[in-house]
Design a protein that fits this description.
The complex is a heterodimer of chains A (223) and B (500). Chain A has 223 residues and is mostly helical. Chain A has one domain. Chain A contains 8 helices and no strands. The N and C termini of chain A lie far apart (55 Å). Chain B is an all-alpha fold. Chain B has a domain of 221 residues. Chain B has 20 helices and no strands. In chain B, α12 runs parallel beside α16. Classes of the chains: A mainly alpha (223), B mainly alpha (500). At the A-B interface, α6, α7 and α8 of A face α5, α6, α8 and α9 of B.
C-alpha cells in the first residue's frame, strides 16, 4: 500500500512557506560567512512568523494579526539585528570551515530531512493530523539547527544553530495551538529572546577575555 | 497568597536594579527569602488552591519549594558577607586577567530573579509554564556564573548556556510531543496542566508518549547533571562564585529534577511506569559510576564537589526508579543533598579566599589555618559521603533496603561499589586538605600579616561559618530525627511517584 505524505494535504501558501524553510536550511548549512547566515536566519524567521496567519489559528482576527506582527518582529527583525550587532562588535576573522566540511554538512542535512520524513510516516497518526503534516519539515529544521551547533566552530554560529533549532520547534508547536493557548508560544519566544540576548552577551565578554570566539580554542576547563 | 509568593521575588529583582545603596540592596536578599519561606509555609497551611489555571502547590512541589526557600534564606547571609569580602579582594588579585566583576546590582537582581523562577518551577502545574520557568532559571543563573568575568568563568558560562539551552529546547520539543500523545480521537482538547492530564490518562498514544518522554528526559536530564549530559556541571560549579555554586547544586538541579518527576507522574498514570523506572535506574547507576571515576584523583576540590552532585542526582534517580520505599529514600536524598552540598560549596569559598587556589595539592593544614571551616569541611565530607549521623546515610541506606527487598542484588552490588569508590575519592582529597602542615605563606605570618600574593588572609567571619553550620546541622538532624510533619510531607510527596 503506498504511503501518502501528509505534507501535501496543506494549502499552497503553507506548502510554499515550508518549502522555503527547507531551502533556507540547506542555505544555512552551505553558508560560509556569518553575515549570510544571519540574513538567511532572518528570512527563515520571517517566513515562519506568517504561518499562524496562513494556517488561520482559531483566534480573533486582530489577535492573529497582532501575534503575526509580534512573531515577525522578534524572529525576523529583533533577533537577527542582535546577531548582526554582535557580529560587527567582534573582530573580523576569516571564515572557518565546519568540522564536516560544507558538502558533507549539506548531505547530512538532507539525510536528516529524509530521517524526519521516515519518522513522519512511521509514527501513528495523532488526533491532530495537521501536526503530522508539519512534523517532517519541523524535525528536519531541528536537525539542521543541531548540525550547525555541533559542526560549526564559531560561538556566534552556534547561537544561530540554536535559533534554527528553535524555529523548528516553533513550527512543530503551531498546529498545537488551540483557543487561547497561543500565550505559551509567545512566552516561549520571549524566553528564547532573553536567552539569545544572554548568549550574545556571553560571547561578547568571552571575546574580550580570551580574544577569540572560536570554540576550539575555548577549552581550558577540563579534568 | 500563591500569587504573592510567585510575584514577590520578581518585584524584588526589579527593585534591586534601582536601589543605589549596596547595603540596602544586599538586605533585600534575606528579607525576600524570609518572606518567601513564610509565604510558602502559609500557602501550605492555608491550603492555597489552584490559581489562574496554571499554578498549584502539591506535596512534591511544596517539598522542592521548601528546600529552595530555606536554602536561599540561609545562603543569602553568606552572600551578603561574600559581597563585602569580594569588595576587599577585587583590586588585589593582579594575576587574574580581566577581573572585573559583574555590577553588584545585576548580580543581586539575577539572584532574586533566580529565586522567582525557581519558586515558579515548584508551583507550576502547567507543563508549558514549567518549561518556561526552568528555562528562566537557566538564564537567571548565567550572569551569576560569570560574576568574576575571568576567561574560565566565561568559558564555563558559555558551555552552561549552550548545553542547557539545547537540552531545554529538547524538553520543549518533548512537551509538544506529550501534548500530541494526550490528544486522542474524540478527546482532542486536553490541556497541559497536571490535573487535566492526570484526570484521564488511559488512552494515551504509546509511541508519541515514549518519544516525548525521551526528549524531555534528555532535556531536563542535561540540566539535572545526569551522565552523560553532565559536562557543563563541573565547569559551571567550579568557576561560579562559591555561594552561587551552592545555589546551583542545592536549588537549580532540583528544579530540573522536578521536571523529570512531573513527567514520571504522568508516565505512571498512563501505564508506562516500567519504561520510565528502567530508564531512571540505568541513568542513575551510570551517573554514579561516571561521577566516581572523576572524583577519584580529582585535583580541583570544587570540581570534586560538582561530580559529587552528579553522583547524588544519580542516587536520587535510582531511588525514584525503584519505586515504593526507594522513592522515599530518593526524596530524602534530594533534601539532604541540597543541604550538605550547599554547605560544602560555601566552605569551599572560605578555603578559596584564604588559599587562593582550587587545587587539592595546594591546600593543607586546613584544620589549623581555618579551624571552624576545617571542622565543618570534615563534617561536610562525612555528610556528602553518606556517613552517619547525616541524612544522606539514612536516604542511601533506605535505597539499599529497597534494592535488597526487591531482589536487585546485582544493582545493589554496583550501587555499593560506586558509593565505596566515591567515599575513597572524597576521603583522599578532604583528609589531605584538612591534615598536614599549612603552606608557609599562611603559617608564617600567623594570620596577622599579608600573604605572598599581598592579600590579607581571611579571618573566619560569623556569616561565613554560620550558614554552612546551620545547613550541616539540619542535615544531621534529618539523619537521626525526622519531625512528624516532615515524615508526612515526604510520604505524601512520594505517594504521587511511588509507582504502586
Amino acid at each position: 500500500m503506498p504511503v501518502s505524505l501528509p505534507l501535501f494535504s496543506l494549502s499552497p501558501w503553507v506548502q510554499a512557506i515550508l518549502g522555503l524553510i527547507l531551502i533556507l536550511n540547506l542555505g544555512l548549512l552551505a553558508a560560509e560567512r556569518q553575515q549570510i547566515c544571519i540574513r538567511l536566519l532572518a528570512l527563515q524567521g520571517a517566513a515562519i512568523s506568517f504561518l499562524p496567519l496562513v494556517m488561520e489559528w482559531d483566534v480573533a482576527a486582530w489577535t492573529l494579526f497582532a501575534l503575526t506582527l509580534a512573531f515577525l518582529f522578534i524572529k525576523g527583525i529583533a533577533l537577527p539585528h542582535m546577531l548582526r550587532r554582535a557580529h560587527r562588535s567582534l573582530p573580523a576573522s576569516a571564515p572557518v570551515p565546519p568540522y564536516l566540511g560544507y558538502t558533507r554538512s549539506i548531505l547530512a542535512g538532507l539525510l536528516g530531512f529524509a530521517f524526519a520524513l521516515w519518522l513522519a510516516v512511521s509514527m501513528p497518526t495523532p488526533a491532530n493530523p495537521l501536526f503530522l503534516a508539519l512534523f517532517a519539515p519541523a524535525f528536519g529544521t531541528i536537525l539542521t539547527g543541531l548540525l550547525l551547533i555541533v559542526t560549526r566552530r564559531k560561538a556566534l554560529t552556534q547561537i544561530m544553530g540554536y535559533l534554527v533549532m528553535e524555529n523548528g520547534i516553533f513550527l512543530l508547536g503551531i498546529p498545537l495551538v488551540r483557543g487561547d493557548t497561543y500565550w505559551l508560544e509567545l512566552t516561549v519566544m520571549l524566553d528564547i529572546w532573553v536567552g539569545i540576548f544572554v548568549m550574545v552577551l556571553a560571547v561578547y565578554h568571552l571575546n574580550r577575555a580570551v580574544h577569540t570566539t572560536d570554540v576550539d580554542r575555548i577549552n581550558s576547563l577540563r579534568d | 497568597m500563591l500569587a504573592v509568593l510567585v510575584i514577590l521575588p520578581f518585584l524584588a529583582g526589579v527593585a534591586a536594579f534601582f536601589i543605589y545603596s549596596d547595603k540596602v540592596r544586599r538586605l533585600l536578599l534575606p528579607l525576600t527569602a524570609a518572606a518567601e519561606l513564610a509565604l510558602a509555609v502559609c500557602c501550605r497551611a492555608g491550603g492555597a488552591g489552584p490559581l489562574w489555571g496554571v499554578l498549584a502547590l502539591d506535596d512534591l512541589g511544596f517539598l522542592v519549594l521548601l528546600v529552595t526557600c530555606l536554602l536561599f534564606f540561609v545562603i543569602s547571609f553568606h552572600i551578603m558577607d561574600y559581597l563585602v569580602r569580594e569588595g576587599e579582594h577585587a583590586v588585589v588579585l593582579p594575576n587574574r586577567l580581566h577581573f572585573t566583576n559583574v555590577p553588584e546590582a545585576v548580580f543581586t537582581a539575577c539572584l532574586l530573579l533566580f529565586l522567582g523562577t525557581a519558586v515558579l518551577v515548584a508551583v507550576s502545574s502547567h507543563l508549558g509554564l514549567l518549561w518556561v520557568a526552568i528555562e528562566g532559571t537557566t538564564l537567571a543563573c548565567a550572569p551569576l556564573i560569570y560574576f568574576h568575568r575571568t576567561a574560565q568563568s566565561l568559558e564555563a558560562t558559555w558551555k552552561y548556556l549552550i548545553i542547557c539551552s539545547v537540552g531545554i529546547a529538547f524538553a520543549l520539543l518533548g512537551n509538544f510531543l506529550l501534548d500530541v500523545a494526550w490528544q486522542v480521537p474524540g478527546r482532542p482538547n486536553v490541556g497541559m496542566t497536571m490535573q487535566e492530564m492526570l484526570a484521564d490518562p488511559r488512552h494515551v498514544n504509546p509511541a508519541w508518549f515514549k518519544a516525548a518522554f525521551i526528549f524531555i528526559f534528555i532535556g531536563y536530564g542535561a540540566k539535572t547533571g545526569l551522565a552523560p549530559m553532565h559536562s557543563w556541571l563541573p565547569d559551571a560549579h567550579s568557576e561560579a562564585p562559591s555561594p552561587i555554586s551552592a545555589l546551583l547544586s542545592g536549588a537549580l538541579l532540583n528544579c530540573a529534577l522536578l521536571g523529570i518527576l512531573r513527567l514520571h507522574q504522568l508516565s505512571l498514570a498512563a501505564g508506562f511506569g516500567e519504561f520510565s523506572q528502567e530508564l531512571f535506574v540505568i541513568f542513575g547507576l551510570f551517573s554514579m559510576a561516571i561521577a566516581g571515576l572523576f572524583i577519584v584523583g580529582q585535583g580541583d576540590y570544587k570540581r570534586m564537589l560538582a561530580y559529587s552532585s552528579v553522583e547524588h542526582m544519580g542516587v536520587i534517580l535510582l531511588g525514584i526508579g525503584l519505586g515504593g520505599l526507594g522513592v522515599r529514600g530518593g526524596l530524602l536524598q534530594l533534601v539532604c543533598h541540597s543541604l550538605a552540598k550547599a554547605a560544602l560549596f560555601m566552605l569551599a569559598g572560605n578555603i578559596l579566599f584564604t588559599y587562593h587556589s582550587k587545587a587539592v595539592r595546594l591546600v593543607s593544614g586546613l584544620g589549623r589555618v581555618l579551624p571552624w571551616t576545617g571542622a565543618l569541611w570534615l563534617a561536610g565530607f562525612f555528610a556528602a559521603a553518606g556517613c552517619p549521623p547525616f541524612g544522606i546515610f539514612t536516604s542511601e541506606f533506605t535505597i539499599l533496603r529497597a534494592l535488597l527487598r526487591d531482589g536487585f542484588s546485582l544493582t545493589a552490588l554496583i550501587y555499593l561499589f560506586s558509593l565505596a569508590f566515591i567515599f575513597a575519592g572524597l576521603a583522599w582529597a578532604c583528609l589531605r586538605m584538612f591534615l598536614g602542615q599549612p603552606p608557609a605563606s599562611l603559617a608564617s605570618d600567623g594570620h596577622t600579616g599579608r600573604t605572598e600574593g599581598g592579600v590579607s588572609p581571611l579571618r573566619e567571619r560569623p556569616f561565613s561559618i554560620v550558614s554552612p553550620l546551620v545547613l550541616l546541622a539540619l542535615c544531621a538532624v534529618l539523619g537521626v530525627f525526622q519531625p512528624a510533619w516532615f515524615k508526612e510531607l515526604l510520604l505524601a510527596a512520594a505517594g504521587g511517584i511511588a509507582g504502586f
